[in-house]
Amino acid sequence: EDQVTQSPEALRLQEGESSSLNCSYTVSGLRGLFWYRQDPGKGPEFLFTLYSAGEEKEKERLKATLTKKESFLHITAPKPEDSATYLCAVQAADSSASKIIFGSGTRLSIRP
Amino acid sequence: NAGVMQNPRHLVRRRGQEARLRCSPMKGHSHVYWYRQLPEEGLKFMVYLQKENIIDESGMPKERFSAEFPKEGPSILRIQQVVRGDSAAYFCASSPSGSSTDTQYFGPGTRLTVL
User: Fold this and answer.
1) Fewer CB within 10 Å, N- or C-terminus of chain B?
2) HSE on the CB side for B94, CA within 13 Å?
């Protein structure tokens, strides 16, 4: 069964303290891996799509990387406004519906 | 370019009533997806629709839930005879096509509370 597991569930960092969020996935074949940011009471906001192992994408203080089994979202020198829940999702190659499977997310809190 | 719009943002229903949730996709998008997010849980896929067609409803509960995306107007997620367990945030996403390379863009969600 296709599955997405994110760790840690919650992460508290001091402003400027870099770290990484992990997303492990099990799918029959990966069509795409997505990272979203979700603020309380709002819908997920798209960040990145990764398609193949070795691919990397960056946006401001965020960098997403992909291997055959997992993806990392690296956050460099975070600021309080980076506090949010970060969601990882995958689309399986045999998915005929373009549906994506989400992990439970990592709640990131950045202290000033 | 307006994003995905959902209304109402908050909906309160008593047990046994009907709930109707509406979703207008982004301009130029003809594919709509509905997801449900229970408290402290991840988003779960419910249904995928194109105009006038249900493509995949494998995530929809077998009873009381239905969805449509008519030729004109928004997509509707309908929940009949609501129960307390239906309380959740319901998100709609849209994409320009059903291509595997498409990104799904999400709306702000409708938070349903069943009393």
Assistant:
1) N
2) 24
Q: What is the largest CA-CA distance in chain A?
A: 45
Nearest C-alpha in A relative to B101: A32
* Mean pLDDT in residue range B65-88: 96
Provide the 10 A C-beta neighbour count for residue B66. 15
Query: For residue A18, what are its two tokens?
Result: 């870099």
Three-state helix/strand/coil letters over chain A: CCEEEEECCEEEEECCCCEEEEEEEECCCEEEEEEEEECCCCCCEEEEEECCCCCEEEECCEEEEECCCEEEEEECCCCHHHCEEEEEEEEECCCCCCCCEECCCEEEEEEC
Q: Give yes or no for a contact between A96 and A6, defined as CB atoms under 8 angstroms apart.
A: no
Distance CA A58, CA A48 (A): 8
Three-class secondary structure of residue B84 per DSSP: helix
Cα separation of B57 and B88, whole Å?
A: 19
With CA atoms as reference, report the closest residue to B42 among A95, A110, A32, A44. Answer: A44
Of A92-106, B26-40, B64-78, least confident by mean pLDDT is A92-106
Backbone phi and psi for residue B86, each to the nearest 5 degrees, phi listed first: -80, -10
Q: CA nearest A108: which of A61, A55, A54, A58?
A: A61
Interface of B with A in 40-79 (CB under 8 A): 41-45, 48, 55-56, 58-59
A-chain residues within 8 Å CB-CB of B98?
A: 97-98
